[in-house]
Design a protein that fits this description.
- The chain is α+β, with helices and mostly antiparallel strands.
- The protein has two domains: 176 residues; 130 residues, no CATH class.
- The chain is built from six helices and 22 strands.
- The N and C termini lie far apart (96 Å).
Length: 372
């Protein structure tokens, strides 16, 4: 009888305890229900910046909602250290405390969640503010990563033995920007961010970003490959798109518009047409002279950038590029054609005979592969 009892104990230990552990694993469990990245729309100190799904639809927090079947993109300023997220969990139990952590297991993430304590009393109701261990990538890009959430259950009633719960995975797509988005794209939409990050992926300086948006020869994307100059108005659309792209990445710029003035009764010397030097327009294979009624380009810092010609001039004055681009002006007076003088104060170029604006004419977003 004694031996028989010993065998019963062994059988009980072999079969009952694994079943008990399995039963606990099936009952205990905690999963991230909602994750917010852009939780403070008025700040980007530790959280994401505001972006739009399209021109009419804002992306709101929480960006991830498991039951709401929501998993939206978000955007960070590059190099942000220890970003903060907000997490709300869901669980079927009320008498269990939890230890929770999350580790990036694929892709390039924004940091790991160090293990922290979740109290049984508010496991399904409290929103936890969590500072991540890590940093946002230091270069421009669009990336996807996966967190592996690992949870350990600690029952509040006997037995108090800890139990490892089933792992849970969440995947997220995000953009890294040079800085907080600027006018006119202070809340950029995904289609602009997609193109901006495609062209300048891996860049971390303004010069590299602007040059790759003009022409990224490695990836064969950018204005050189995706845009075409077709009509006399294209300079306005091209420069507007360039401004929208770089402003979505957080780069300050302004438009320059140099134009003839069209009055019903023009006086002597008023500019009516502008003749360029031999230039190569976007989409053309040969350099030629062109007659413009007006021309528009972009200034970024001390650099004049003309998307219509893929040309960039490092000169902190709009007139330097105008001097470079044009050679003659057609006037309404007895001097039919007048040479382009250096500077913008003589003859046709005098302020009273032409129009100049450092605001320019901003057009709606057209996007790549569009013939205007």
């Amino acid at each position: 009888m004694y031996n028989f009892g010993k065998y019963l104990v062994i059988i009980f230990a072999i079969y009952f305890f694994p079943m008990q552990v399995y039963s606990q694993r099936s009952i205990y469990g905690l999963q991230p229900q909602k994750i917010s990245f852009n939780y403070d729309v008025n700040s980007s100190e530790f959280d994401a910046v505001s972006i739009k799904k399209d021109i009419n639809t804002n992306i709101t927090s929480p960006e991830y909602d498991r039951l709401g079947i929501k998993n939206d993109e978000f955007a960070y300023v590059k190099g942000l250290n220890n970003p903060i997220i907000k997490v709300q969990f869901s669980t079927l139990t009320t008498n269990v405390n939890y230890l929770v952590k999350a580790t990036v297991v694929s892709g390039e993430g924004i940091g790991n969640v160090c293990e922290f304590f979740v109290n049984a009393c508010d496991a399904s109701t409290k929103t936890y503010t969590v500072k991540l261990d890590g940093a946002v990538p230091s270069t421009i890009g669009k990336r996807t990563f996966t967190w592996k959430w690992e949870v350990t259950a600690i029952p509040t009633t006997t037995p108090y033995c800890t139990v490892s719960c089933a792992d849970f995975y969440t995947s997220h797509t995000y953009y890294t920007l040079y800085d907080v988005p600027k006018e006119p794209e202070i809340q950029p939409r995904l289609e602009i961010l997609d193109y901006a990050c495609l062209c300048s992926y891996g860049d971390n300086t303004i010069d590299d970003i602007c040059n790759d948006i003009l022409a990224n020869d490695d990836l064969q994307v950018g204005f050189k490959y995706d845009y075409y100059y077709v009509t006399g108005h294209d300079c306005s659309f091209l420069s507007s798109d360039f401004v929208r792209i770089i402003s979505s990445l957080g780069i300050v710029s302004n438009l320059h518009l140099w134009s003839a003035i069209f009055y019903p009764n023009v006086s002597y010397g008023d500019m009516t047409k502008m003749c360029t030097n031999e230039i190569l327009l976007l989409g053309y294979t040969e350099s030629e002279e062109y007659l413009f009624g007006y021309h528009q380009w972009v200034q970024v810092g001390a650099i004049q950038i003309d998307p219509s010609t893929l040309f960039a001039m490092e000169e902190d004055f709009w007139g330097a590029y105008e001097d470079f681009l044009f050679k003659k002006y057609k006037s309404s007076g007895s001097v039919y054609w007048q040479n382009n003088y250096v500077g913008q104060l003589i003859g046709c170029e005098a302020p009273e005979h032409r129009m100049y604006s450092d605001i320019g004419e901003l057009q709606d977003w057209a996007g790549p592969n569009v013939n205007y």
